[in-house]
Amino acid sequence: MRSTGLAEVAKTRLALEADCAAWCRISKIPEPPSEIRKAAGGAPVRPAFIRPLGMLGVALVAVLWPVGALFALLASLEDMAEWLLSSKVRARARARALEEENRKKAITTHALDQLFDGDWTATAGRFLLRWYGHSSHPKRLLVPTPDRVVLAAPPKRVSVRQAERMVVVAELPASEARVEDPLLGVHRSDRLRIVFADGSWLTVITDEERSEIHKHLMRRLRTVS
Question: Is the Cα dihedral 198, 193, 27, 22 positive or negative?
């Protein structure tokens, strides 16, 4: 499903007044201290196992991967030939490499390579302990609205038609949480941060760089400026 239609999906399927939305996931949740996990009711910290249909998809990818790798190699050889022939191509390649290096440094500087701030007793940590209790599906549709931050997903893991099966699994009032892009206007990124009122935060990884939400935040920045 194209991301350009996700806000409309949120409106039609979830009755949310949304200007933007994005599918996202989180990185692996570290094992919390045993007493904290016990106090949270022993909630799962991993998504459910992949369903048989999904396993078939994985198997097909494994079979087709060598073919894709061969085409990728041929494309790389063609690109290399062009690179050897063109100083402009070399200059662009150096510029891209420098941009990627700076982007990775910025991600590290803003701790966007970390799942959360590390405090299990703060709001973000407690929310993570309930993440897969809300839904065992690995992805969430993140929907910022004027008055809340909404997360939607199928109640359990599915391999297909995730948008058709999703329901709201968590709602955070705007007074308690907001969505921000720490690299806004500086670097393209597939990272967003949910920041809670107590200053704790968690990082989500969108399906693509410059998702609807990234673009919406950029437009809002330009309007304010």
Answer: positive
